Amino acid sequence: MTKKQKKVRNRILVVLVIFIVLLVLDKTGLLDPVPEIAKFIIYLIPYIIIGYDVIRKAAINISHGQVFDENFLMMIATFGAFGIREYSEALAVMLFYQVGELFQSYAVGKSRQSISDLMSIAPETANIIREDGSVEETDPESVSVGDTLLVRAGEKIPVDGVVVEGESFIDTAALTGESVPRRATVGDQVISGCINGEGILKVRVEKDYENSTVAKILELVENASNKKSRMENFITRFARYYTPVVTIGAVLLAVLPPLFTDIVFADSIRRACIFLIVSCPCALVISVPLGFFGGIGASSRNGVLVKGSNFLEAAAGIDTVVFDKTGTITKGEFKVGEIYPSSSVDITKDQLLEMAAYGEALSNHPIARSILQCYKEKTGSEPDLSAIDEGSSKEIAGNGVSTILQGKELKVGKEKFAGAKSGIGLLDEAAGTVVHVSYDGQYLGAIVIEDAIKEGISEGIASLYDLGVKRAVMLTGDNKDIAQHVADKVGINDVMAGLLPADKVAAVEKMLSKEDNGNRLAFVGDGINDAPVLMRADVGFAMGSLGSDAAIEAADIVIMDDDIRKISSVIRIARKTVRIVRENIVFALAVKFIILVLGALGLTTMWLAVFGDVGVAVIAILNSMRTLKTK
Q1: pLDDT (mean) for 277-300
Q2: Which domain holds residue 428?
Q3: pTM score, whole prediction
Q4: Per the CB 3.0–4.6 Å rule, which of 243, 368, 402, 560 could disulfide with 176?
Q5: pLDDT of 509-524, one tens digit each?
Q6: Phi-psi category of residue 468: left, alpha or beta, with phi > 0 → left and psi -120 to 50 → alpha
């Protein structure tokens, strides 16, 4: 609890004790001999103690022209109760209203905590290593691209950069929700806001503070509350018209019945007070935004940033998810997939890989590096360059590499370049970039180089289908065979290949035109070329860890650790949030309507009116807080 909340709690406890004592005295008849004016003062003192801030707020709002709000309703209702000498009811209304307000304040604080925890990731200082080797402590905003920073154990990484010296484990929990620290060594990228767990790192700055991950996250969090859902906008408009209407209704209820029926003014004023108390829209005005805020908080704890409650509401209706391939489903990194030795030569897979590694030993091409990496992983060593005639090595652009190994020509590259016979039947089950190998004019076989599929993709796609998502689509600029191969591996049931960025937008437009009302289409991407599609989709998901700044800027929801499995988590949280908000709206309106009708007919008491206001608000708030517990 905050200091302010504790102060309100103490006031409530003091007045609650006084109220119980007065209630006992009243019910036992011990207050009957007390003069009316003295009884009025006895109840007025605890009323002022507990309600002075409500009266002050109402007066300030009235002076600013904002008459109709819950403070005004509580003030008028309790003044009316005092006017008809219902002192205990007036004190009870104000007391339990403050209990509800305290409960609301505490609940909002709890839901804000999940998001405000993110605010603490902002680093306070940065240690710049100067040319003379000295270390200067400065503000992170003063750091420039190219500077070298010293990050000690336990310190936050101030800006995005690359490790140039040292090795450590980085705690990314605040950003990604991932509890397992990540190992960082020389050459690895590190992002701002993470904590250096152990050891000392020297980091070369790649982005200034304004463009670093932590600054962008804080900006997203700060702006999230400005983007309201349709339900929140409805409640805001509803309260704007609802409160004046019920206030006018209460005045008519107090004045008209005594003029046209035998109901006395005291009874009609009591009914009007009940009408005012019950009509207070606290339960709706508080619980609806609180529910969405809790949903956004639950998402942030899972390492997912939702830029506004409107996007969380839209995510609840997703039934089609469209994926970019490279960088989203695949890592955009080449790796050796399948190895196919020729059946006409006595050669094993390991021997074929070794020959390819010798052929690619002097090349810097990404495909060459993937073959060398695979060879190193299998053997633990690099190819012996002494066996190669380095002067004879030639790289023919678009075809492959030719070199002399032990006096004989070794070719690694395309089918015709390596002298492979067409239709050899080796690659019917594979799709990827195919590298053929020949030695001394004899064809040895082929190696398929694949774009590595990210971990957890298959589980992520399967979990979407489990949630009832009807369609998963992959859009890619790759050829159809490669695209279909990747889609089959991860479980995607629809593929559109050979697309340019403009074609991707057109494809999404076409799918959007076929969507039924209430259903939403989500697009998941990471690159600069995905930004137009992310903006066009109903809900855009961006990969935050490795994604481009343009994609993160254009997206509605950012997955901080690139784990596609978290899309289903967000949809689950969104659906639960929307369901809880709807429950609150229906429950609050139904209970209030029933008590309003009973109160207008004189069939209820102020105690039930208190429940209709404070009780319903507390129940709705408790229900809203369930969104925070979504796993």
Answers
A1: 78
A2: 331-453
A3: 0.68
A4: 560
A5: 888 877 555 678 999 9
A6: left
